[in-house]
Model the fold of this input.
Amino acid sequence: MLSSDPKRLKRLGIDLRPRWRRRVIVYLTYFIYVGVIFLAEGRNVFPSERVVDWFVSICVIFFSIFGIFSPLKSFGDVPIPAGGRLIGKKVMLGSLDDWAKYRYGNIFDQTSPEEQKELLRTYRVGNYLLPFKSASGFDPRVPDERELAEINAASKKALQYLLVLLLFSAVSPTIWQHQAAEIYLILAVLAATLSKAIVLCEERDPRANVEPEPVEQK
Done:
């Protein structure tokens, strides 16, 4: 679920691949957000309580680890056939890498010697339109089937957490001492970010998924 782009995995000099580091940033983001919201309560001078509430909410959604600094693949993207670009129900192939990704799911340098030999034998210079082929096509920039299942599971868990918060808000007299608009704003921010927070906190370090190379014993 983490992006394959090295630039997105390192923000402001911080390596976001370790899971513990992402958890710390997520917890700190929510802690600071809620703290600022409640510290600004009743503020009448500029910036007023409403300005502060909206400003920090927008920052959390769009300018934090949940927004432009997120190391995750986009939740809104859908898988497209790798190799070339999609035109209607067909995909345009041009380069050797396009053909390799279309036929074998990897760029040319990552295919086997036999596959490379076959690609070189059949490759022709020019652009060609071929039928949509998602079975072997794979684009690492967007979620695959497993990652889409993770997104759905995180979204379901986020809704369950929000339901618990709403039920707690309904029966807690302390919560309703604050302005209702403030509570709804916090819930809106949680609705926009909680599923991403769950994935950020649960996704393993991608380096842990690499199989160790066998060591030949002498």
